[in-house]
Amino acid sequence: MLVKNYSNARQNLKTLMTQVNDDSDVVTVTSTDNKNVVMMSESDYNSII
């Protein structure tokens, strides 16, 4: 699992999306207010719901 801050994730969104899809990687995007999100591929998400 990768951890990126909001600014880095925003600047590298296309690269992160490719990495998440190609490698089944999961990315946690952190924010200064601690309202973090997790990015994962749609196919991985669908497999767990």
UniProtKB/TrEMBL annotation:
The superkingdom listed in its UniProt entry is Bacteria
Which InterPro entries does the UniProt record give? Antitoxin_Phd/YefM (IPR006442), YefM-like_sf (IPR036165)
- Transmembrane regions listed in the UniProt entry: none
Which Gene3D superfamilies is this protein grouped with? YefM-like domain
Q: Which Pfam families match?
A: PhdYeFM_antitox (PF02604)
Q: Which family does it belong to?
A: Belongs to the phD/YefM antitoxin family.
> What function does this protein fulfil?
Antitoxin component of a type II toxin-antitoxin (TA) system.
Identification of the protein by name: Antitoxin
Which species does the entry assign this protein to? Staphylococcus lugdunensis
* Upper taxonomic lineage: Bacteria, Bacillati, Bacillota, Bacilli, Bacillales
